Amino acid sequence: MPAKNAFYAQSGGVTAVINASAAGVIEATREHPADIGTVYAGANGILGALHEELIDTTAESAETIAALRHTPAGAFGSARYKLKGLEENRAEYERLIEVFRAHDIGYFFYNGGGDSQDTAHKVSQLGEAMGYPVTCIGVPKTVDNDLPVTDTCPGFGSVAKYIAVATREAGLDVASMAETSTRVFILETMGRHAGWIAAASALARERDGDPPHVILLPEVPLDEQRFLDRVRQSVEAFGYCVVVVSEGVKTADGRFLSDQGTRDAFGHVQLGGVAPVVAAMIKNHLGYKYHYAIADYLQRAARHIASATDVEQAHALGRAAVELALAGRNAVMPTIVRGSDSPYRWHIGEVALEAVANREAKMPAEYIDDSGFFVTEAALRYLRPLIAGEDYPPYRDGLPDYARLRGQRVAKRLPAFGT
Amino acid sequence: MPAKNAFYAQSGGVTAVINASAAGVIEATREHPADIGTVYAGANGILGALHEELIDTTAESAETIAALRHTPAGAFGSARYKLKGLEENRAEYERLIEVFRAHDIGYFFYNGGGDSQDTAHKVSQLGEAMGYPVTCIGVPKTVDNDLPVTDTCPGFGSVAKYIAVATREAGLDVASMAETSTRVFILETMGRHAGWIAAASALARERDGDPPHVILLPEVPLDEQRFLDRVRQSVEAFGYCVVVVSEGVKTADGRFLSDQGTRDAFGHVQLGGVAPVVAAMIKNHLGYKYHYAIADYLQRAARHIASATDVEQAHALGRAAVELALAGRNAVMPTIVRGSDSPYRWHIGEVALEAVANREAKMPAEYIDDSGFFVTEAALRYLRPLIAGEDYPPYRDGLPDYARLRGQRVAKRLPAFGT
Questions:
Q1: Which of A174, A192, A336, B159 is found 20 to 30 A from B343 (Cα to Cα)?
Q2: CA–centroid distance for B342 within its chain
Q3: A103 falls within a domain
Q4: What is the CATH number of the domain that holds B287?
Q5: How far apart are CA A103 and CA A4, in angstroms?
Q6: Is A351 annotated as a binding residue?
Q7: For the site Important for catalytic activity, which positions are given (chains A, B) (predicted)?
Q8: What confidence tens digit (pLDDT) does each residue in A87-141 have?
Q9: Contact B78/A176, CB-based, under 8 Å?
Q10: Residue A273 is assigned to a ligand binding site
Q11: Is B397–A384 a contact, with Cβ atoms under 8 angstroms apart?
Q12: What phi and psi, each to the nearest 5 degrees, are found at residue A139?
């Protein structure tokens, strides 16, 4: 009996290292041709399976697959597309199984966050029920660091490093000009529901008085007066103030601070960004000259400054997913298990998909200090190893030389899916 | 007769490599103790001279000075402080000469843009007139790349590299998600008067269809309808559109696009940023999901991704300034002279300060293509070598290990300056 093929898909917001996980999956399967046949990748994630848009990874050279390790974003395309419950979306789940059956796919590696692990879990259940069992293994990924059980999620360490480096560099800039120019600098980070990314900026501080001076976390409702006092104290003490603000910061009544209903001159709702709202507070109440940066996708795409630890873990988790499948495991996800903080030790563990599906890991309360404007030493101990090490991509003509896939499609065998 | 001392000051907006020029100046003087004594650096630039706040660079070890080469921002403090004409600001110019005389300073190295070269030129003239001749040498610096005569300005190559890398990385991110998420990504760059920085994003494009798809330059008044057409064409052809917009883009009637008079719900003027204005256009007229990033200070402080060419030139120009002084030159500035584009060859030239003072170099019209939304091959030929090479800072605990100065002040010898 020839080996079953595999399906690999990327899901949700992409990261600097999700392709490193893809490389791990593909490289590990290539080492076991007797056990796993062709790896098909979904064009645009799970949509690739629904629409039978399969990318034949055997058309990519070993060099190209290796280059995925240093290439950011989703090389096969990712999708924000959530399959809901089996009842509501039964036709879609069945379609997945049909496509898998048509292409002799017996393994499903789903590289994503909590929603994706939920989908992988359901596919595993439905395949069983439909008489076409599929080995479903999750591969964790999310810059938000909000998956439970695993110590961290690939993608987070690199965005954390980016934000810490940016805070240190911009902090030096502001410090050197504050006498005659900008007094308050605001850096807006991602993190709609948890403050992990903003918290990582704290790693930039080496000594008292170093930036960041204030971190605004989604976990702490903003007390405007206390915040303004803190900014003023920082400017008075150090000459300047660096504020790192998570996009998810909320007011005391639970609304996103960025949802201020601001409108432009034509009455259009003003578009996004919590940084300008914070800047306006400072301008209107303290009058300091300010500047702000909104890193947006730059932070999660910044493979050029990726954490070597993160890259290594992303790659190792991709490989581990294949090894779990080869070991006969099903409906599980490999995890990072921390052995110790310093020296940092970690190994790969395993968790049942149903234990991670649709569950969000919050930042522990003991990681936020009493003021609510900074993190604790416990948080720093947790965060520090995650940004350790540099893993530079190769450069050509002054720019990172990222992988380009041939992206060869597999001939379709089924009628179009009628959604 | 003991050697005269030197005064070094940083001026205006800081860069990723202005400290490399400082290292060049200080290292070169240390090699000639018989000719130049102590280098005093101005605390907060020229203000340090006016207020007699002098930093004794001899208190910094050779290792610390060498580390300035890889440290961004202004290690001695910079200032946005322009001395105007000799008539209007005579007292300040005279104060400079008095401070120089009090500390036996015979050399003035001024590291800045056009305004600073003007100041250095005037100090040279006034010293002569006051019977206290000072050798005044400019050291070029500006991310805006707008100094005349010199082929490029230290600081520009690194910000150009940052923007090109960011465009490539964010472009991959958007491309991989466009099917179900963001269609249009907008990156706002610095460049209030010239489009050099935004233009550098074009280096990210390797093949037709690669980002950036549209570049909005201050040199080209925005034609909103043509812009929107171009964005729609890009989304239809490639599935997405990356727009790089210079903060200095203007409307047809000559106003900054960012000055839209937008107000928040409380009637406060909405604060800054051209990216949200462009985003609103796209949202309101095309309806595409958008995201935007505002790099702000991150771009000019990003020493972690500095151009090796830029670092080398910044350092060489600092050294060259000292060599010009030792050769008896006065009121001049060392420049970069380009020998050839490819292979890239350059050497150090020299220009009279009066030929660069207060003159802005514009981006040549032949660098902008007929559409007005992209640059020409001539521009790319010019830009390409400026971002070449990587020059990574050392890292400790996952973060760049930047220099910290002792910053030891020199005892004051004069009464406070009464402005």
A1: B159
A2: 24
A3: yes
A4: 3.40.50.460
A5: 9
A6: no
A7: 141
A8: 888 999 999 999 999 999 999 999 999 999 999 999 999 999 999 999 999 999 9
A9: yes
A10: no
A11: yes
A12: -125, 115
